[in-house]
Specification:
The complex is a heterodimer. By secondary structure, chain A is mainly alpha-helical. Chain A is 77% helix and 0% strand. Chain A is globular and about 60 Å long. In chain B, 37% of the residues are buried. Classes of the chains: A mainly alpha, B alpha/beta.
Chain lengths: 253, 310
């Protein structure tokens, strides 16, 4: 294990985070706060409580999940795409580092950033609504697993992308709609039966449901299924990354 | 200098996905401690060859051993010995010089060593720029940073891909000096260039690559003797019909309907014979209005080498 290399890449990526503090931490916090102001305070006060949870509190896990998914993907994809774009990837490819070390350091840094972000949003939410976390360890588990899984997904997108447009296309056109429709702002139980069944094909539903269960003990699907889905995605993305490195896809000519 | 090769390239071929065959069964040994210049026109396969040895390009066929380590099976051992200075000026715009050079050292598996980084930066006249962001540096400075990155992890083999393309005279001189001092410390250096004078100045041995094939590898002195032909052209005031008998010994050629005399000589020879020729021309009453010397360009050399090979 080239531990010096893992440390060097991880530090490099984290330095990028602090350098772009505004974009990477502050702006998601501001946009999340706006959701709370609008949905939690303004509109939420007119929506009845369900199972003793105010609407403002209900949306907290979904909002954190929304940020986790989009930020994990964009951090990790940008982290590996940018060296490809500038050409500095030559150094990574010529260095005595294994593929596993490359993935661990890039994905580790992106996931670290997402976890920090998730915790900051959680703290921000605490300023607007009363928070309770029924199952803190589960909460941490989902937070970490989701961050790692979707940083891995971002890493794949970063390697696949051959332009800045492609970097944006999946977070914008796939992840954001799936998250909005995946129960961030409502329980899918309130949907008509047909739409509810359809919603179960949306993988994000399982992520949000499990995460919300760790807060309030209420879920759209059982927490075991949520966990299994998250681990399933993790396994899928790991398999794709393994294939990428085995073939050198879009990395080595 | 030990004759045991530090790099052994055997039957190395590379065909890109486009079908372009950049390397055709290249076999080449690099000797420990030498400066090896790889000469070739653009698109000859120089960068592909270097990139393959360094692990950036996957070989289609063949093998490369670096100090006995296979570059695929034992890539860690092979790569940690190699420093690569790429042709393109690719740098992280927002990093500082110090950070990017330290990063390279870590990436290649070396523990922190501020003293070594300092030494490298000072040797490359980068010390006073160590806190500057890379994007504020000039092209020449960026080139120095790339060299510093490659030297940060104390490689025993250094690849310099077109190190002096587009750099000013001062940097070129510095670079040559640096390469020599590295050689004194036992570093093996492989550089690519299309400037023959650079190869002449630096190299112990020269390899010529053309269309993906190594068409010649020779000691510099030997190659220079073979390639170093120069020509002196004299524009005559009055055209000659034939070469006067007293000048036959010079093997002159008449050109441009007799209005030009061409003398071919060995630029590496101790005596060019130009002075004697001019005196004899004077003695024969042949006057000229202008003169110029030309040296066969690298391209001519390639053409003649390639055609000779066929």
């Amino acid at each position: 294990m080239n531990i010096h290399a893992v440390r060097a890449i991880y530090r490099f990526e984290m330095a990028r985070t602090w350098r772009t503090l505004m974009q990477s931490i502050i702006s998601p916090v501001i946009s999340t706060s706006l959701y709370f102001v609008v949905f939690g305070a303004a509109i939420g006060s007119r929506i009845p409580e369900s199972q003793g949870i105010s609407y403002g509190a209900f949306i907290v896990p979904g909002l954190i999940m929304l940020s986790l998914l989009t930020q994990s993907i964009s951090n990790a994809s940008f982290g590996i795409y940018f060296p490809k774009f500038t050409g500095t990837i030559y150094e990574l490819l010529s260095a005595p580092v294994s593929y596993l070390e490359i993935v661990v350091s890039y994905v580790g840094a992106a996931a670290t950033k997402s976890i920090i972000l998730g915790l900051i949003i959680l703290a921000t939410a605490g300023l607007f609504v009363p928070l309770q976390v029924a199952h803190p360890w589960w909460m941490i588990l989902f937070l970490v697993l989701t961050s790692v899984t979707f940083s891995l997904f971002g890493f794949i997108i970063g390697i696949w992308a051959d332009g800045f447009e492609k970097l944006q296309v999946i977070p914008l056109l796939v992840i954001t709609p799936l998250t909005f429709l995946g129960g961030s702002f409502y329980s899918i139980d309130i949907l008509p039966p047909f739409w509810r069944t359809l919603a179960l094909f949306n993988p994000v539903v399982y992520l949000i449901s499990g995460f919300r269960w760790s807060f309030y003990g209420m879920a759209d699907v059982s927490v075991g299924v949520s966990l299994a889905m998250t681990l399933g995605f993790l396994a899928l993305f790991m398999a794709i990354v393994a294939w990428i490195f085995k073939t050198g896809y879009r990395l080595k000519a | 200098m030990s004759m045991q090769p530090i790099i052994t390239i055997s039957n190395l071929s590379k065909t890109y996905a486009s079908g372009f065959q950049a390397l055709k069964r290249v076999s080449l040994d690099i000797r420990r401690g030498e400066i090896f210049a790889l000469l070739g026109p653009n698109g000859a396969g120089k960068t592909t060859l270097i990139s393959t040895v360094c692990g950036i390009v996957k070989p289609t066929e063949g093998s490369v051993l670096v100090a006995g380590h296979d570059i695929v099976a034992d890539y860690r051992a092979a790569r940690s010995m190699i420093g690569l200075v790429p042709q393109e000026l690719t740098t992280d715009a927002f990093e500082s010089v110090w950070a990017t050079v330290s990063f390279s050292r870590g990436l290649f598996g070396k523990s922190k060593n501020a003293a070594h980084i300092e030494e490298v930066l000072k040797a490359l006249s980068l010390w006073d720029k160590k806190d500057n962001k890379l994007m504020t540096l000039s092209g020449g400075m960026k080139r120095r940073v790339l060299i510093a990155k490659a030297l940060s992890h104390e490689p025993t083999i250094l690849f310099l891909d077109e190190p002096t393309a587009g750099v000013d005279v001062e940097l070129r001189r510095d670079m040559w000096q640096l390469v020599r001092s590295l050689q004194e410390r036992g570093v093996t250096i492989i550089l690519t260039t299309h400037y023959i004078d650079e190869a002449e100045e630096m190299a112990d041995r020269i390899g010529v690559i053309s269309k993906g094939e190594i068409i010649l590898v020779d000691d510099k002195a030997e190659l220079m003797r073979k390639l170093g032909k120069k020509q002196l052209a004299l524009q005559l005031e009055t055209p000659l019909e034939r070469i006067p008998p007293e000048l036959v010994a010079y093997n002159l050629d008449l050109a441009s309907d007799g209005s030009e005399l061409i003398y071919t000589y060995d630029a590496q020879g101790e005596r060019s014979g130009i002075l004697a020729l001019l005196q004899d021309l004077n003695g024969a009453g042949i006057r000229f209005k202008d003169l110029q010397t030309t040296q066969s360009s690298l391209e001519d050399i390639f053409v003649s080498l390639v055609s000779k090979k066929k």
